[in-house]
Design brief:
This protein is 41% helix and 9% strand. The chain has a six-stranded parallel beta sheet with strand order 1-2-3-4-5-6. Helix 2 crosses helix 3, helix 3 packs parallel to helix 4 and helix 4 packs parallel to helix 5.
Length: 210
Amino acid sequence: MNIEEQIFHPETDKNFFNSDRQNLQKSYSQDHEELIDTAEMKSLLLGMKKNKQRCLANFSERMTFNDHQLKILEKCMNDLDVQEIDLIDLPDEPMTDAGVSYLAQIPWLRELNLGDCRGITDKGVKVIGEKLKNLESLSICLNLRVTDITPLQNLTNLKVLDIGRTRVKHVDFGWIKNSELVSLDVRDSMISEDDQMKIAEILQKKNKCK
């Protein structure tokens, strides 16, 4: 029996609508949907672990990684301890800073793509900088509510950072020089052209020395 066959769909199950107690019915429906999501997510993660896949991405048109879904994802990843999955690629998803706070509870993440997740603000960036110490690659591009990446200076393993098309105006040159960064995309951000050229020069010198 595949996952689809195991899933109970209240909108198509006739018995589900037989009760006259609408409030209880609504409560049951919400609880059951969460259980469905959890079971499906665990099945997905265990399948990835079995197949030695390290990247979790959303290839399904029917699944949306909103804050609620990310809460389930975080719980399942920690319950199953699937540290083999260390790359999360979820651009253009309807998450907010609350969703980011759930992802930040998966400490072994090495790569994270949250580009064009427009509910993310500086608060979410701060949580990433405080919690995800193992990150080596991060994209928060196209998030127009992001203005400050100072908290990311705490990520001492960070090598690749994309802040293109954000509202970031300033990046600490000293941090770039002394960090592990080898790639910093600032295109179409609020950083001045002169500063963008300076950033490019710093990275070019760093990469020549390696």
